[in-house]
Amino acid sequence: MRLVVRVKLLPTPEQATALEATLRAVNAAACQVSRQAHALRTFRNYDLRKHTYTQIKDGYGLAAQAAQHVIKKVADAYATLQANIRAGNLGKAGSARRVRAEATPIAFRAEAAQPFDDRCLSWQIDARTVSIWSVAGRLKNLQFAASAEQLKTLSAYRRGESDLLYRDGMWFLIATCDVPDARVKDPEAFLGVDLGIVNIATTSGGVRHSGKALNAVRHRRRELRRRLQAKGTKSAKRLLKRRRRKEARFAANTNHVIAKQIVTEAERTGRGIALEDLQGIRDRVRLRKPQRVTLHSWSFHQLGAFIGYKAARAGVAVIYADPAFTSQQCSSCGHVDRKNRLDQACFSCTSCGFAEHADVNAARNIAARGVTGWAVSHAA
What we know:
The chain has helices at 13-40, 45-59, 64-87, 96-103, 148-157, 212-231, 234-243, 246-269, 281-284, 289-296, 300-314, 358-377; strands at 2-10, 114-116, 121-124, 129-132, 139-145, 158-167, 170-178, 190-195, 199-203, 208-210, 272-276, 318-321, 346-348, 355-357.
């Protein structure tokens, strides 16, 4: 399992100036490589080196490894662009968005992240310092802050490149760690998890994680953004810049807490976790305009990803079940009818009379489908 560990750098003013100059140099070089790649229609890493390596190395004062990483970054960016085009994420052939993406070279922000390998960056975990290449020379004894758990993970599992990132006036290093998967235990049963907007997650055990607080925060901040954008003054723009990404961090923290509680409950009771397969839900559902904002700000994919990696580390089995009709099907007798779902919270079966909270009933259906899916997939 691949995890990322983000640590905060604590540079001196001189070191910060050197890091800023480095990011600007490598991203200016990346823009030049991108323009040449687009003009020559050459996007492979090794082919691009023949045309651009010497130019950017001498023209921007880059070290050999840094110049190669710049070229690789451009090649990866174009590979991602082509993958998005093939997947239809930029529209159909001939659409304005797709034509614009294909006709314009990829541009890199002056402060975009830059990867460093072990030749350009070395870690001193015990001293909590790093040594990193810059256009002003090697920066040694550059301090960073990290928790004890992060230090343990870095020391044992760090592999490959680390990314230098500048965000909101702070410097970060993002390191990739290859953590071995725990052995997945054969589950005795499954804990079904129903994801929603009113209740972010509801388990088949009857535990409901309410989304009321999260939705209230999002609504309040959305209204504040609307007022500040309408005002348009310099102070309003400063406040908008200062508040950006706060909502995303709040939602991510909420999802982390919920995911940890779900995985802990499943591990304690010896069960696996059954989740809904909600891939493509935004394209399938049809909602009125006021409801679209709520749906598209709903971070169900992030919550599912958090549950997935936390379960993998704990050795808890995870299976994805078909969510079709889980909210209309009776978890007691299996009868499916739209009239079973009286409203958002109430479920009452028109066949057997079984009544339960609607989200709990849906979670039980997901748990049952998880048992069936696990049996089929492990029948051999």
